[in-house]
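Observation: inputs received (chain + zinc ion).
Thought: call the complex predictor directly.
Action: predict_structure
Action Input:
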Amino acid sequence: MACPFCEIVAGRLDASVVAQTEHVLAFLDLRQAVPGHVLVIPKAHVEDIYAIDAGLAGEVMQLGVRVAHALRETFHPPGLNLWQSNGKAGGQEVPHFHLHVQPRRVADGLLRIYGGAVPEPARRAELDDMAQRIRRLIPSDDGVSTPPRSP
Ligand SMILES: [Zn+2]
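Observation:
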């Protein structure tokens, strides 16, 4: 089956477009979880966060920020979520990277990230250990640095 988002980019599937740049397209999600639910996608087929170029992901985010401002002006929601899913367990349904921009209202029926119970704060030693494991796998280039923070 053809990728539905690539079909939209190619103009073979209909979509209500709200904005675009050379590499990025923003359009209303066909399934409006809440009024004004927008998807922002790279025009090139990129499956997920692991496949997208960091610069292109930045372009998706930049358009997402502009869309968020427009949604605030249009719908006056008291809240807004950016939501991006990867893999089946992460809830990704279309295998083409997409950023959801969702105006939010109290009790609008959408998922709460902690499902009600907010986790207790973790112990600092556990967090520091986890941070160390993550840090050593982040490339230190393009101005990214990963020094351990001294207490
Ligand atoms: Zn695609």
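Thought: report the result.
Final Answer: Helices lie at 4-10, 54-75, 124-135. The chain has a mean pLDDT of 90.
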